[in-house]
């Protein structure tokens, strides 16, 4: 197999993705900071910004700085960052595994396994598989390499085993994925420098879904007077959700950020928030509640586990700031909203299934 050709194809594929223009991307990224804290708002009142500000050092001599850098002993996060860089350089090599990487860095397999999982949130073999499948998906869309060649470059011994793994994570066979022509990454390169902000490792699955019209019954309010309205919507819904008959899904509640409600320039921080339950065709609207309709269309759906009351800001920032720029997805300006589905069935840790739905074309 000609590895040089595959490497060049992979780089060319990456370059192509950088050329895509995302309709409304700048505006969406501005909205993401607002949207993030509301999405995890089952018990939302007010969000306090806890991000610290880094101070600047003044009066440091260059010689002192140089000396500090020369005497600096890398901590475990910095060492794992070097491991991740190494993985990227050798990603499409057949013999890339925990044992080989540990030997390259003079680590024990046990140390590297434990430390890598601690820093990134993944076992290394899971990270390697997800990264390789992501680059395989990129090559399927942006190159003409045969599926077998891509399978072998991704570390699989047969096209069949590659197709089985690809189908599991992308919900399409490699041939179907190539034919559709949409690239959506499963796992981007992990950035240890932003590990406290962007926790993409929480996302278990990404899928493209065609959804029918969704009808919701619940409460809404405008954030024009402050974000505390979101908490009020949820408290009212939890107190009266038992009165909603004809629910289409008893497992999830829905929180919608409707940005089309205030289309005026300069008011992008003001939006309508809806907390409700999806209903079937036959249903009733209890007194004091309203009915809302989300049109049929295509969505990028991000699934993960979490606590309903926690802020989704790290996940949302990752999706809008990292995932979308790398994908070929375009926002649907005709559907200026996004919504989260919160599972009502909690595990022993108080976590449930959460899905973030973003309209795309």
Written overview of the protein:
It is a single chain. By secondary structure, this protein is α+β, with helices and mostly antiparallel strands. It has a domain at 207-360: Multidrug-efflux Transporter 1 Regulator Bmrr, Chain A. The chain is built from twelve helices and eight strands. The chain has helices spanning 3-18, 25-39, 62-70, 76-89, 98-104, 109-120, 124-142, 147-153, 159-170, 174-180, 228-240, 313-326, and strands at 203-211, 214-222, 252-258, 272-279, 290-294, 297-306, 337-343, 352-360. It has an eight-stranded antiparallel sheet with strand order 1-6-8-7-3-4-2-5, with helices on one face. β7 (337-343) and β8 form a beta hairpin. α1 crosses α7 (124-142), α2 runs antiparallel to α12 (313-326) and α8 (147-153) crosses α9 (159-170). The radius of gyration is 23 Å and the shape is globular. Mean pLDDT is 79; it is low at 16-66.
């Amino acid at each position: 197999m000609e590895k040089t050709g595959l490497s060049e194809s992979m780089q060319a594929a990456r370059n192509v993705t950088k050329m895509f223009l995302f309709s409304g991307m700048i505006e969406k990224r501005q909205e993401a900071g607002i949207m993030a804290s509301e999405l995890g708002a089952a018990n939302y009142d007010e969000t306090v910004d806890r991000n610290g500000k880094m101070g600047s050092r003044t009066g440091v001599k260059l010689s002192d700085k140089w000396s500090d850098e020369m005497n600096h002993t890398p901590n475990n996060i910095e060492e794992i960052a070097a491991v991740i860089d190494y993985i990227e350089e050798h990603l499409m090599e057949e013999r890339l595994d925990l044992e080989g990487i540990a030997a390259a860095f003079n680590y024990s397999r046990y140390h590297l396994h434990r430390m890598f999982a601690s820093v990134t949130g993944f076992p290394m073999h899971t990270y390697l598989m997800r990264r390789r499948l992501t680059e395989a998906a990129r090559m399927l869309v942006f190159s003409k390499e045969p599926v077998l060649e891509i399978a072998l470059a991704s570390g699989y011994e047969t096209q069949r085993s590659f197709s089985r793994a690809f189908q599991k994570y992308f919900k399409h066979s490699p041939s179907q994925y190539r034919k559709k022509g949409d690239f959506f990454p499963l796992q981007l390169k992990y950035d240890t420098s932003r590990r406290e902000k962007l926790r993409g490792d929480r996302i278990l699955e990404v899928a493209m879904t065609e959804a029918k019209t969704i009808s919701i019954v619940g409460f809404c309010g405008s954030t024009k007077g402050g974000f505390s309205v979101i908490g009020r919507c949820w408290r009212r819904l939890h107190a009266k959700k038992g009165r909603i008959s004809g629910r289409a899904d008893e497992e999830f509640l829905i929180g919608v950020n409707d940005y089309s409600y205030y289309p005026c320039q300069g008011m992008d921080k003001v939006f309508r928030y809806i907390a409700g339950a999806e209903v079937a065709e036959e249903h009733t609207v209890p007194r004091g509640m309203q009915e809302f309709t989300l049109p049929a269309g295509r969505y990028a759906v991000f699934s993960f586990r979490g606590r309903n009351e926690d802020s989704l800001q790290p996940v949302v920032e990752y999706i809008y700031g990292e995932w979308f720029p790398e994908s070929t997805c375009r926002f649907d300006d005709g559907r200026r909203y996004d919504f989260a589905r919160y599972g009502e069935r909690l595990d022993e840790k108080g976590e449930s299934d959460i899905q973030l739905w973003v309209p795309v074309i």
